[in-house]
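re: ur question from earlier - yeah i can do the single chain one, its not a big deal. heres the input i used so u can compare w yours
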Amino acid sequence: MVCLMARESTPADVSPAIRLAEAVCAVIADHGLERASIREVASEAGVSIGAVQHHFRTKDDMLVFVFEHIVRATTDRVRQVPLGQSIAQNLSLVLRELLPLDATRQREARVYVAFAARAATSPRLAAVQAETLAQITGQLAEVIERAGSQGKPVSTFLLSARDEAALLLAVADGLMFDAITCPDNLDPGRLTTLLDAYLTRLLGGF
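and the output i got, formated as tokens:
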């Protein structure tokens, strides 16, 4: 998932709320979601507590905004993936955007996993998580449907495009979670190898 980090250079025209969201991401990636207090975020962003409270009345409001920010950035990045003629290649490119394949995406994934876990007990975050899954599943389903409309072989799919997309997303999420919690077992090279091996098994090759 996508989350700009506060320590990285940020364009001057980014809104104060987005700058604070980036500070929240940095705190969560380094210390976990429980440390993402208004005081800690203010310190990370180099602003006063009052400046944070001007944008977010409560910690819950702040976390919901940040999670929504991550979702928007992620779905925008997936939408911008250039698609070619190969359905396996297209699915691989889209799903790779969700995997921790470099330092930036590793930090992003740590933030996303923290939010997804919190969503299990937070109705507001659960609503954002449900929308996240719906949007990304829809984007994957579009890739599958696009291949079918172009006459590409998709006969190995046994379910509807949306259900197949949900299964593909579950595979990517599982790889992401294992790579974040056990990074020594799943380095970026092994992640892409496993993903592409699964797609090859499913679709018969690239």
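The chain has one domain: 16-203. not sure if urs matches, ping me
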